[in-house]
Each structure stands twice: as structure tokens, then as C-alpha cells.
Amino acid sequence: MTLDSSAPDYRARILAEQADAERRLASLSRRFTAIVEGSEFTTDDDEHDPEGSTIAFERAQVSALLADARRDVEELTAALARVDAGTYGTCIRCGRSIADVRLDALPAVRTCIECSG
Q1: Rounded average pLDDT over 16-23
Q2: Strand, helix or coil at 41?
Q3: Which residues contact 38 (CB under 8 A, 6 or more apart)?
Q4: Mean pLDDT across the chain, nearest whole number?
Q5: What pLDDT is stored for residue 5 in this prediction?
Q6: How far apart, in whole angstroms, are the C-alpha atoms of residue 83 and residue 106?
């Protein structure tokens, strides 16, 4: 099945995914800032607190989620560029078409299922 790379449904899907990723990025940025600001004025020994996770763990966890969200935004931006260039839906490794079901599941994907391994 050949993909029409100018199809508006793919552009709309990518834009929707990108907007979600940007909202997640903004939310995580606020959360990270709140964790950092909240830990500045406390003298609690978070490493030995028997109650739940440590502040350092929370900060590291949110930091990793932030990196994922940034990567998602970048990948979706690159997917939009491929739509504009007419190469969206073409595997960057073998040059064959990427199955529509794969693009539906992973809108920023660059490789076909055969080349993804």
C-alpha cells in the first residue's frame, strides 16, 4: 500500500501528536521547576526519609521524562519536514514504503518494520 505523503490526515495526526508532546513538555518543565524550587528551602534529609521517594529520585525521573518529551517534539517536527519534502512514509534505510498501520501507530517513525530491528 502506497502512502500519499501529502495526505492531510497524516499532517493533522502529526500536528496533534506534536501538540500533545509540547503540552507534556510544558507540564513536565513546570513540575521540574517546582521540585527544584521546593527543595531549595528545605533541610529535610530526603535520602533517608522512610516516606516514599526522594527528592533526588523525583528530580531525576522528571528530568528523564523531559528528555523523552523533547525527543518526541523533535521527531514529530522532523516527520512534518518529511511530509513537506514528500518523503514521509518512505523508509530511510531501504527506501520502501512504511506500512500505513505502522505510521498510524508511530507517526514519527522513519523505518519500515523490516528495517526497525
Answers
A1: 97
A2: coil
A3: 55
A4: 87
A5: 47
A6: 14
